[in-house]
Structure formats: structure tokens, C-alpha cells
Amino acid sequence: MKYVSLYRIWVIVKMAVKFFAQVILFQRRHRHGWNEQTRLKWEALLKKQAAEYKRTALHLEGLLIKVGQFLSTRADIMPPVFIHELEDLVDRVPPVPWEDAKRILEEDWNGPYGDVLHKISEQPVASASIGEVYHAYLHSGTSVAVKIQRPRIEQIIQTDFKALRIVMWLAKHFTSFGKQINFDSLYKETYTVIGQELNFRKELQNGLYFRNRYEHFPEVDVPFYYSEYSTRRVLVMDWVEGARITDLSYLEAQGIDRKDLAMRLLRGFLEQLLQEGKFHADPHPGNILVRPDGTIVLIDFGMVGEISKRDALAVRQLVEGIVIGDYERVVDALEQLRFLLPHANKQEIKQVIELMIQTYLQEDLTTMDDAIVQQILEDIQTIVRKQPIQLPSEFAFFGRAVSIFVGILYILNPELDLLAASKPLVLEWLQKQGKEEEAPAASSPLQLLTQTLRPLLTLPRQIQQALDEPQRRREWEQEQHHQSLQHQLLLSKKRDALLFCLISAVALYISCFFSQSMLIYGSGGLLLVSILYYIGTLRSHRRLLRERMSEDGRRKGTKTGN
Hints:
Oligomer: single chain
């Protein structure tokens, strides 16, 4: 097991070091400017890396599959081309032998499975990276689904978390993401969210929570869970007879109205997404079933997010700020929701949000000149990339859940006007929130409409101000660019030196582990040279920083004198 763990860590870390080295070398090679051809080469490199990650994940299984699915939701971390390549990374793992699954079942039940089950299928009906689902019957004749954890999966994932910690340390110190992402917090969030799936008792609690939440909700049902038979590695619930909600031929055969089904699904999920409390973070079609009578059934609550009361109030402030055109209120809400890291330029972010919303009010950009639209989008992307913005993990799962959910709605009803269908439900939610606590005006539909129209009266002036801002921003950026070229060059050299130090240290560790004397001397010498190179680069960098500080001091003195 020790050699297996070492192998997994080596493969994962080696792949990460390779990716980081490719990115650093590419950026250094094209640091003097990018054109369309450079952009295409960059996207080709990222696509190649994503494909390699997918192959490695499907080979090693375990945490890499879960992390790939997690990263595919993090548009604030990963480039779009990487996300697109990982979108179809699903749990495609072979089933474990029945004897291994049976052993876990009987270990957790402290006896033969026949004491609880009348019979059980020896082939799983579903196989994933953490658990497998079997169809069984209790002695009472009740049909149940039994979810059994894969053997040794907890040890495998804990090993992978060690590798992930190393990878995040590398990303923090050797990539540009280190300035925009709190990797310590991200690791903790990932460990918590994915680690919870290893404990089926947590999924049991979530299932019981949602069953109670939808108890008086006729449009949505949740299966019954058997607490007395459920353990950390085994979960037992009622078997659901039905089909995936996107099985259109099944819906037609059962005479289920797809448009009505879409509206019932919308109402059911808005109840989760607009209220404080837990929400189903993985609502893909396989986890939303439809019974022959049209009842919607939610299953699989291993991945669940939660909206706290404080966050729910901030979301409300965000919605109201957008509705009444108070963009400072919107930025404050984003800060409360932890979307903004320290040192974010709130004024600049406010201008971006205002520009985006006002542009949307201009008939979704369709009435504006194409060149202006393109310039606006490029300026928005530039500013967003420069700002320390993150997407907290709970909202990453929230955004992923909304994205998947909206996709299902449009499969059911391609003609659905989502905004029109959601508006009365959202207004009802705002009214309900307004009654519970004191809030600013805009608690009734009429007031909301009045406050929505008010910003439109100053729309031309606001758009002109927003369009003038990018030009001023570009002039400032050009000046800053010339001042920072030398700084970036030395910073890049320092990262390269640290990277070589890390690689040589890992090689030295492996050489010592396998007692290879020639490799020990070679890697040790490389480590010494790398350390000396890093010290020299560090001194040059510090000297440059002192010179820049002196120059800034002289400039401030000049401005004061003037």
C-alpha cells in the first residue's frame, strides 16, 4: 500500500509540475505581447493539458475524478477551454467484485446480509468513484436501493488529498492564480465538500432533511431512508420506480405534460435556491426521476450545499441592488458573500457591474454596434481578470446546480421564458423576506417596478460614462506596463528558480528512497545550484524593489511640491 500511495502522489505531482512548467515557459516566450495566433496556441496547450488530466483521472480514479468535476464548476479558477474539456468527466469506473462489496456490507451490519435483506442483485445498477448502488428486497417485501462504499476508497482519497495539497502549494507560489485565489481556503473547502461524501451518514442526514422539507410539497418527493440499516459505508433507501426527467420518450408514453413538468420543477427548485438552508448541489438528470404519475423524485444527497441566513440576506441585498440600480449595494453584497478578496478595487468592480447591467437593459446588446459591444466585453474581461475575485466553493456548487437545472428546464420546454416564469416567484420571495425583517423600499411589485424604471431615465448618461472609462483605464495600464516589465522578468526568474529547487528536492527524496547513489549526487548538485540561483535572483529582485520605492517616493514629493 505504501508503494501504491507513493506512485499516486508521484503521478499527480509530476503532472502538475509539467503543466505549471509548460504555462510558465509559454508565458515567458510570449511576454512581449499576444496576438490571435498566440491565443490559439495558448488554447491548444490548455486543451492538451485538460485531455491529459482526464486520461490520468480515469486511470487513477479516486479524487482526481471528483476534483475534475469540481474544477469544471470553477470558472473563476480555470480557463474556459479547460472547463469545456472537463465537462464530460463523469464517474466511469468498473464495478468492484461482489465478494468485496458483500464483505463491507456484512462488516458494517455485524453479520450475514441475509439477516436484513431477503435478496440483493450481485451486479450494481450504478457504479461511481465512491459508491455503488444495488437493488435489493427487505424480508417485508419492500424494494430498496442499497449503496455500498468502494473498498479502500477512503485511504485512496486521503492519499490523493496529500498530493492535492502539494499541487495547490505549487499553484500558490508558481502561478498567477496565487494572487487571486486563497489556496489554503480552497483546499479546506475542497477537503470538506468532497470528504463529506465518504461518510454516508452525512448523506442520510441530508436525505432526511430534504424529505422533511418537501413533506407538504405535492410537486416533489424524496425517498424514505432506513436509518437503522445505514452506516458510514452503507446507505439504504426506498427503491424508486421511474425514469430520468430528461427521458422524453418515457414522458410521452406516460402522458406527462413536459411544459407543466418544467414549471413544477422550477417552483420546486426555486424553493431551495431562494431560501436559507440546504440545496441539492448535484441535480443532474440521473438524480431527478419522474414516477409514472408525474411526481418528481429527488435522490442522491451526497453533494449538498448550504445557504446561511447571513448569506441569504446578502443575496437579497444583491437582488434588490440590481433591481433599484444601487450598484454600491450590489458590490457590498458581493463582498459580504466573500466573492471579493482583500485589495479588490470596489469602485472599478462597481463600474463593471453597472456597465453589464445597463448593457443588458439595452435589449441584450442587439441594438448596439458590434464593435462597441466587442470593446465593452473585452474591457469587462480585462478588469475582471485583474481584480482579486473568487467564487466561494458553496457558490461554485450553487452556480453549477443552477446551470445544470436550467439545462434540464430547456430540455423539457425549449420555448420556456425563464425570466418571465421566475419573476412572480422571485417577487413573492422578496415580499416574504421584506415581511420578516426591516428592509429598504421595494417590498411590493409596484414599488419594484417603479424603482426598476427609475435608473432607465439616466441610462444614456450612464452608458456614456461607462464607455469612457475603458479608454482611461487602457491609458493607465499602458503606463503601468512599461514600469513593471523588469519587475515581472525578475519575478519569473525567481519562480523558475524555486520550481527547479522543488523538482530537484523531489528527485533527491526519491533517489534516497530507492538508494540510488548516482541519482543522489546528481539531484543534490542540481538542488545546490538551484538554491544559489534563487539567492542571486532574490537579491536582484529586492534591489529593484528598493529602487522603485525610492522612485515612487520622489514622485510623491514632486506632486506635493506642485
